[in-house]
Design goal:
It is a single chain. The radius of gyration is 20 Å and the shape is globular. It has 2 domains: about 160 residues, Roll (Thiol Ester Dehydrase, Chain A), CATH 3.10.129; about 70 residues, no CATH class. By secondary structure, it is of the alpha+beta class. It has 7 helices and 10 strands. Helix 1 packs across helix 6. About 40% of the residues lie in helices and about 20% in strands.
Amino acid sequence: MWIQIDEEYLKYLKNNEDARVPNQDYGKHRFKPFFKLFKLKGTDITYVSQVSHPQKRHESIKPNIDFYKIYDDRNELSGVVNLNMMFPVLDKYIIEYDMKMIEERVAFKEGYDFTYYENRLNLYEDIINNVSPIKKNAIEVYTNKYTRNDPRLSSRSLDFKQLEARGIEYELSEILERDDISVRASRRGFKVKIEEEQFNLTYSQVGYLNRFAEQMMNDLMIDNEFEME
């Protein structure tokens, strides 16, 4: 259920696309509970969100399609989920955490009682998976970003497709060990630019970026050979 994101991947999204992408590292003995929402069909792109600690301002905010409040057994506000801040992650950069791993992460002293924290995570998991419409709403928030059926919701949401492009850009740069690759979202997928050449990348190819990178470099090599002649 609970995950963390590769820190370098996360930093790349924040530094190169949108600084509003949620933080993950809150210091030693802290664990920000991220979780999966949905996967884009035919790709290895998974959208994720996180349960955030409630702030005073959250008490007056009404629940909405992109904002959900989680209450504990005493009817006290325990956590909130902001779906307008969800973001895409390539599956290879998702790190699965079980309860033992989380306990080791948050324990600040020997004999630390993990029970309260574990119970809270179990509450979150039950509500997210079995009670709330969070995962269904996440798909609607994603779709609305570009259909703009709700302009206000669209304007406060991250640019999901551009974040997808940035994640692909990061992975291609890692595969090819180059820093001159740029990717932008297009109507039917993505435009990949390298050495002044542009290549089309479809969503169905996203799960095979190693193969795409190899073909792209082969095409570049052929083009360069023709230029030399």
